Amino acid sequence: MPEAISEPSASGPSASEPSPSGPSGAEPSASAPDAPHPRFLVAVLAFCGVVVAVMQTLVVPLLPHIPALTGATPAAASWLVTITLLTGAICTPVLGRVGDMYGKRRVLLASLGVLAAGSVLCAVSSHIGVLITGRALQGAALAVVPLGISIMRDELAPERVLSSVALMSSTLGIGAAVGLPVAALVVEHYDWHTMFWASAGLGLLDIVLVLLCVPESPLRTRGRFDALGALGLSAALVSLLLAVTQGGAWGWTSVRTLGLLVLAVLIGLLWGRYELRVTSPMVDLRVSARPAVLLANIAALLIGFAFYANSLSTAQMVQEPTSTGYGLGASIVVSGLCLLPGGLTMVALSPVSARISAAYGPKTTLVLASAVLAVGYAVRFFTSHRLWTIILGATVVAAGTAIAYSALPALVMRAVPVSETGAANGLNTLMRSVGQAFCSAAVAAVLTSLTFQAGGRTAPTLHAYLLVFVLAGGAALLALAVTLCLPRQRGRAPGSVGRDRTTSLAREGA
Fold it and tell me: Are 369 and 267 in contact (CB under 8 A)?
């Protein structure tokens, strides 16, 4: 198994570096007073996570208008969402591993640079090919979240790790909830390129803040980068996610869809066999097969499914015309604002989730989260005729998501070596993305198959939306069942193995 080694920080020595003197061989580093305050580090990394999450949902309000704005077909326009899913799925585990080996801050900065470059591409062009390329670059920045979690584990005091990681993990949901109404406002009142210029500016601001406030972790993983393993994982993921996201358009029994699914299975089997034999694997499958890690990743997939159904259905449902008998005819801005209370709830509940995990363990927290998600969809099922009850149900679902997303990294970090934090959290984030991909395909299939004529147009029936809520609630209940099967984890909290053991002694000396 790869070892964690300590190397000098790229920005010079820091308080986290061990010293040969002092009690137990440690004393405070000379540069400790200049180290960034932990609150600044957490705030900067969380802001990076929110910006990246906003990028994922930025074009959703714009999608219906893309064919008219660019001359592209609706099928081509849908790639503005699909491509970010594909590149995010590929880059998240790969860059997490690269960060473990070559420096998390370094890879974080590169990811933010790619995000800014992709935003500029989208801002300067209306050509669908250029827009898809820019969105592909934006999707690659999804690795910022697991990289931020890894940096927190390395740099923060043990007592701060759980709450900080909880906030960082929740930024995926917070950014999605905030991004939709903000993007809707821009689309309605400004030139649509404006939101891409704004995202480019935010990406550059993130880079400056990281350079000022985030030190490079001295922890490194020994070994050589598994390029063949990364290529195999990427090929399997692309095959799977292409089949899932495009199956509705191509036909679920078409040669292309079935061929890609078979190819994903074959490549996955060959990749797994190779990873078990290589000395320094891209993904340590022996660690990933541990019940604590495997079940946490399965739960992440199911919770990703349950969370995304809320975002996909809420905005569309309230925009349906009143002629459907259930629609509210709301504007694009109002539909986006329906998710904003959920985003604020996620911010508020992240520290609460961390306290529950610290007191009772992350398994208990995830059980509670899954139950809240299921209750949220029960509310959605029975109260889908008034705006305030729709917002209430969506907010309850967001609350469950916040608690779940905050607990998942803690579960993973308790079960993996410190040297594999980035790769393991990258894989867990990937499983959430895969769950979202399956959810997107399922929701699209349901809403396009159960339709009727209303007001001269084809619209989903109310039963279609109710079926979406049943599927999402079922995923939450499955996540609850999987979580209950998790083994009880004993030992130190994840933060206690984050920094070098001499760091706490250094702080005391300071």
Answer: no
